[in-house]
## 1
Amino acid sequence: MTDDVLERIRKQVESNPVILYMKGTPEFPMCGYSARAAQALQQCGVEFAYVNVLMDPEIFENLPRFANWPTFPQLYINGELVGGCDITLELFEKGELQKMVREAVERHRAKTGEAETDGERQGG
Amino acid sequence: MSETVEDPRVQMIRERLTAALRPERLEIIDETARHAGHEGARAGGGHYIVTIVSPAFAGKKPIERHRMVYDALGEAMHKEIHALSIKALAPGEA
């Protein structure tokens, strides 16, 4: 059971160049920190995936352990945890987030074409 | 001698961060009251904003610095603390 969910998380972060684990959705965020992280990503102008952890109790419970990171939101770029809301906004304000997500999406496209991904899509 | 009585949870955060990271500056703002009625607040966890300047952060990436703060706080991250906003700086950084 637990191994399954860890495998599911691994697949999600590996198949999506940019993925945000958040409370609620970008349109209807359920937490101020998730809202701000999603908004910064939307302003980067690229497509990103998200998982609403409130709708997925297994991920809600297991992702902090998988990531060694206790809170949500969690942003992953190229399969790697970048950080939570504070770090996401810090990078956005420095103009680094925009570059990171653009490069990740381009790299992913070059590698896979437009492959199927696991996780919902949010247009940027 | 006058002493300000600090909220016990803020005191706990201050003690743990001071012991683990020897900060040059440590500021803890308790925002719990602003989040009353919020889902996490109802469960009893507080909301805090921490600004911490420590030589331990020199040469470390943001994610490593935040992990050091989380590690120092330990299990409090899941009990007394519902949300924590962190600004972790090395001395000399803006």
Note: The beta strands of chain B are 25-30, 46-53, 81-89.
## 2
Amino acid sequence: MLLEIGVALILAKIIGYAFEKIKQPAVLGEIIAGIVLGPFIAGRIFGIKYISAETEGIAQLGIIILLFMSGLEIGVEEIKAVGKNGLITSLFDVSIAFLFGYIAGNTLGYDMRTSIAIGNIMVATSVGITVKTLMEMKALHTKVGELILTVAVLDDVLGIVILSITLGKGQPLMILLKVFIFFFSFVLILLLMGKIKNIKFHIPRLMLTLSLAFALIFSAFAKRLGLAAVTGSFFAGLLFSVFPQRRRIIEFTRGIGEIFFIPLFFVWVGASFDFYALKDMGMLVLLFVPMALIGKVIGCSLGAKISKFKTRDALAVGIGMMPRMEVALVVVTTEISMGIFSDALAHQILAATILLVIISSILTPILLKIVKEKASTSQEG
Amino acid sequence: MNLKELHEKKIKDILDKKQVWNLPLVEKDANIQEVLSILTTRDHVWVVEEKGKRKICGVITESDILRLIAPHRLPKYVFGKRYSVSLHHGTARKACDVMHKQIITCSPEDKVGEALLRMVNAGLRRLPVVENDEIVGEITTHYIIQILLGKR
């Protein structure tokens, strides 16, 4: 186990960096490091068994830390600052993206719970690649860039909320009650934290320990209520974003997350990739990937158009919101660990999501450049 | 002054009354150029709600500006808006775009030792002295050294 993890860290770093050099997200490199270490390559050649209870445990912690970091970085203040345009576009964005996923599942003949789970995967955008592309195009400061960044803030929050509501097991009324209890506790703690945030203690690194511990406890609380653990860690991040020590907590969480836990989550995702799943998934991929891309383009463009954006700019917002990455992979692995997909289907959906991540990362910069360049003559500053 | 004595003193006892007129302040809607020009001679600038008022709402330090003037680099995992703030890409326009919104403070009644510990724990080199949400002074590493050496 120790050897595998050590090798995984180095491989993830090297391939991740190589991907950054060719202007692709490092996360893709980390997944590929996992595929290399998985049963089909290193497993065959060296007899390495990367997937074990230990590596899975670390990957699970990676998920918790990733979502905690996301909550911390997004922050309660920033959510409050989202204006009308951001809100309208986000609502169209998440509902249509979700609906397209659901329709894809339904068309393929899956039951309601499975189709909803597929819808969940399609909700959360990862704007890293879009931000890079907009920077290259010197368009980050434009209205389009601004709206994309704003929508991406709400997108993650709404994605996690939808995940919480739709994944519960049991009577709908009971699920709603549990979701209510969770969010009521969140608001209560938020109010409490607002009151105590300036209390001064002199215990070294107290806030850092407390924040991480709270992320784990709140995740356990969410899980106990039948919601996903990631819901707990994301909202724990939002709670700690109100503290004056926020930057410090972010630095600390980024430190342990980026160096150790999060790359090992993506390596684990790659190592779970099953090549055999590819041969039976023709229709799934044919529907899953296009629906994920089209859903975002339609949802966001429609929202932007209603917010009085020009058609071409609205389209650019839609395309800019296509990439899926970290959160989509977190959602799919969470759903797999909750046992929503049957064994064979789980492998196929994971493979389809990885393909979606790859295709959307490649396609977004190309399409964004085409749309924006054609619009450049009429583009505002 | 003896270091131990200094730790026991209250902040209000070591604050120079004239300091309050010489604090680096800027309002949150101030243009980034204005912020930069203050930072040509200062290490940091406190951000206040309105011009002429002292209600503090943020701080911009040298290291924030360093990040703005260095070639822009996104982290591996991007969340939120913070990493898109860039001078080169025109997304850092006003003081409030680049400031730290949550600030760690001290009050005139705090002991100097406590304030220094707070600075060490939080990795800060300066603290605003705040009374009723208004900035009334600042404690910086430079200032403490000057007191220790009897230059103040």
Note: Residues 2-378 of chain A form a domain with the Na+/H+ antiporter like fold fold (CATH 1.20.1530.20).
## 3
Amino acid sequence: MYAKEKTGGELSVGGPSVRGMTNAIVVERLVKRFGATTALDGVDLTVAEGSVLGLLGPNGAGKTTVVRVLATLLVADGGRVEVAGLDVGRHADQVRAAIGLTGQYAAVDEYLTGFENLEMVGRLYRLGKRESRKRAGELLERFDLIDAANRPAKTYSGGMRRRLDIAASLINRPRVLFLDEPTTGLDPRSRLAMWEFIAELADGGTTILLTTQYLEEADRLADRMVVIDRGRVIARGTSDELKAQVGGQRLEFTVTDAAVLPRMVERLRPLGVDDPVVDEQARRLSLPVSGGAEVLAEALRLLDGDTSRIFDVGLRRPDLDDVFLALTGRAAEEVASDDDTTAEPAMTGGAR
Amino acid sequence: MSSLAATLSDSVVITKRNLIKVKRVPDLIVFATLSPIMFVLLFRYVFGGAIGGLPPGVSYAEFLLPGIFAQTIVLGSTTTGASIAEDLQKGLIDRFRSLPMARSAVLVGRTVADLGLNAISIVVMGLTGLVVGWRINSSVGEAVTGFLVLLLFAYAVSWLMALVGLLVRTPEVVNNASFIVIFPLTFVANTFVPLESFPSVLRTFAEWNPVSAVVQAARDLFGNTSPLAPVPDAWSLQHPVLYTLIWVVLILAVFVPLSVRGYGRAAGR
């Protein structure tokens, strides 16, 4: 149903779409400059009411800048930006009343308790004292923070702070929610829990724009994705469409001794649908293949029992690094301003 | 809600939030009051005996306390800058800016909370002063006016510091940078020693230094001067209350709009 978007979005941006669905977010030719640097260079995107858009890209791609413009924290230098049917430049306060924002760093007051944090935000949304307290209680319950409700947020774990932060952005029942890297820095268990919370919100009909560095995260949560790099949209579509653009799955071997790699390449070459990639330093061999588990079995047969030097083997589907490699010719880490992607736990790297 | 009522209500919410921190981290207030106590004791007993040229009939404790009051609350105002910088760093300003709240409320709430902190430290210093021999020799009305002048000046300085915090964005840098400015400003003044002992250039600076006027105003209003003391040469010290109020109005007129504008543009990390 989003087939039109694949053409680049120009046809369906703005106002109700042909199918009568309203767009909760419309961004057209958005430009943002910081001094001489152009952070956003003509970004177009739309998010249909009630859907989830994953905005992907490496650090420094401009994801956060997009969110900050949409959330009225930055003023655009060009283009049109509408959130909940309102122009963010002209009706900033009305936009603010309709949105919730969870930034990259849990913006909670450490000295206030969880309850006090939520009550304060409710009061600042002008919900009134009684309603603010009622919402605070409900959200603490829902985000599993009720036991910690009366403890200062300073004592919370990273995952708890992030949940409290999201709870704060939900206190006014926003129509549109912005989540800027909601799981960066969380341990795997907290990340899974966060995914469940976000999926529940999406099921409840909240329009969500989610930025992430992890394709798997977008895969789990987003209906559609937009990939940006250096302030430009370089790809868009559903998860499957993106992966199709990147190419199919790959067979990956990690060995204990790089010396065996050339021999393996020779033996495995017939299986590949494209040239193998050898990384001697990582002692890794990656071979584009098609087919399922039988390819793996065939590969091991071709190696003919010569497997003592193999440390790890698996069939991999493309992840964001691969999307980047395919779309830009650069790995995500090369363009990343810092190294979050490499420090990240084994959520995207494992075989799937 | 009218916009003024809304701004007030937002500001009250933010002030409350800032004061909760004081309640949760009592060390803050302990250290904020220990240093003025230390200053009172050090100056009274270490330098007190060596400082001459005091107005006849005025003890050093009486001369000193208004000076210490002024120095401490001006220093106390730097809290505003450091706290704003901390809120920026932690992303809280981003959160506030994404809410449909009044633009000025975060700054109003911050400066008002810091005014409260300054009031507390004046009480602590005053009590310490009474122990070491300071006395108020004026009417209740004059004494209250004296405290109000001190707090009003400190409140204005808070708005200046708010802008510093928004621009500098690192609490430690706010503290270090403001010490470089505030120490000379509070020492090259009549705070601890009579102006008569200053070399001429410094003396002119000290006479027109608003801190001197604040101190002079407090001394006059607390009755910590002597009718036998010579009339100051500078207009600023002949009319210290008026001169202080002019500074207060000037600082607020410049830095309230600048700070509110800075807040509207402030970016977190």
Note: The mean pLDDT of chain B is 91.
